[in-house]
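User: Sequence in, structure out. Go.
Assistant: Echoing your sequence, followed by the structure tokens.
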Amino acid sequence: MEKQMKTQTSGIRSSFARLFVAAALTASSFSLVQAQDSPKKTVDADIKYAGIVGDRILFQVTYNNQSGEPFTVEIKDGQGYQFYAAHFKDKSFKKYFAIDKSEIDKASITFVLSAKTGEQKEVFDVNTTAKVQEEVSVVKL
């Protein structure tokens, strides 16, 4: 009877040991998967449409570069033609970019801000159509 109790106890212990090992292996495999699937970091920049001045379309780029590391701003059209590219080191970067409407009629504009920490792309589809609104006012005399 005592021998039978020992075998049952050792059987339960070995079952718990197997369960523990299986749980540990499963947990470690999940952490490996998470480490391998980490997405590419993006730069924390704000790129937005700012309006129209004359025959130019304005875009505003704001970037808080606390480390002062060098970064690049590129502007391209839908076919990959580069309108602009420059390197900056500003810690608090805010700049307006004006692009002629005639250069980008019915195209897309891509802003790429890249630094050591990552890259951010913003694509804007531009469709320049002019609408004329005529107002008429009639007053009874």
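User: And one key feature?
Assistant: The chain has two domains: 1-38, 45-126.
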